[in-house]
Amino acid sequence: SSVFSAIEMAPRDPILGITEAFNADTNPAKINLGVGVYYDDNGKVPLLACVQKAEAILIEQAAPRTYLPIEGLATYDKAVQELVFGADSAVIQEKRAVTVQAIGGTGALKIGADFLQRFAPGAQVYISDPSWENHRALFESAGFKVNNYTYYDPSTAGVNFAGMLADLKAMPTGSVVLLHACCHNPTGADLNADQWGQIISVITANGLIPFLDMAYQGFGAGIAEDGAVVRRFADAGGPLLISNSFSKSFSLYGERVGALSVVASSAEEAARLLSQLKRVVRTNYSNPPVHGGKVVSTVLTTPELRQLWEDELAAMRVRIKEMRGALVAKLKEKAPSHDFEFVNKQVGMFSYSGLTKAQVDALRAESIYAVDTGRICVAALNSKNIDKVVDAIAKVL
Ligand code: PMP
């Protein structure tokens, strides 16, 4: 027997498990609503035209693949800052924000978690109940105790705001609060502008450390509208961490493009933070990959491509909203005794549909796959599959 012989099987990832079951299903009409990916109306993951044009430029340049700096491509980091904070942001002008290119949003969260573990090792970490399932695992693996704060209210399919605020007020000073900047995954329930204001006040008054995870900028109300939350936190002063991802907004899932930004209280402090963030990156993977960062920075900094991206992202956002509307309208017809109007109020790619585990199992018998919690990916619905989905939901209700 070796050191490996007693190793136990790790638990399966619940969402990847759905994909495995889906792949094994031989029904040609099968539908996977369990994913976290945007599909177009033909059921395909799009390759955006802005990305193709940027790649054509990059191929033309035929640049050698040298190592990037530890913090990533400078043009990328700058473009990310302007996107996330707004180009005229005080934290950029005062050089109080530092940004490192990361391996997707996940990599950004991991760098942030490792960084916090070095400089706030005893802090409690709080994530929403429920949250993206990797949040807990990421912070636990960085050495933190991870707690939940009240978030979703199944009775309204919205946020239990009073409960959330009370939980925030009870957190010890110095706690890290992970917040979804927009398009909450998995529920689709977001805070409104007034509620955000109250959250910011409590966080500031109680000396909590906000960590905003923004994986869906542009899928809510718009690029600037969704980013407004980040700007409000930045205006309230540091400390603040933001992880952002281009997996969804550029449909660049496999290129692993994201960033971690940290707001400090002075330019001098920011320089020290950056030096430490670089140390975290250096000891994990040395420096980030070139291609995705170049594609995104080329698009963001080339006016025609930037416009094209904004239009393509708007089209994705609008199509998801249309699918929400169609789902609600069709369910009203097929299942008139059930009210699904809340689906129109939810934001982003997901909906907590209210379907129970038993109903999700029953849907699976119809070759329609959803998450056990009832989470469905609205971005996986299209004009060809929606009637089948509605008929099946009406049947299992
Ligand atoms: N945060 C949230 C809330 C997410 O939903 C996701 C992706 N599903 C991520 C972070 C990670 O993004 P990436 O795929 O870029 O690592």
Automatic annotation (TrEMBL):
Keyword Transferase included in the entry's annotation: yes
Tagged with keyword Transferase: yes
Cofactor(s) in the UniProt record: pyridoxal 5'-phosphate
Any single Gene Ontology cellular-component annotation: cytosol
Cited Pfam families: Aminotran_1_2 (PF00155)
Coiled coil ranges: none
Subunit structure: Homodimer.
Homology family: Belongs to the class-I pyridoxal-phosphate-dependent aminotransferase family.
Database matches in NCBIfam families: PRK09257.1 (NF006719)
Protein name (record): Aminotransferase
Source species: Pseudoduganella rivuli
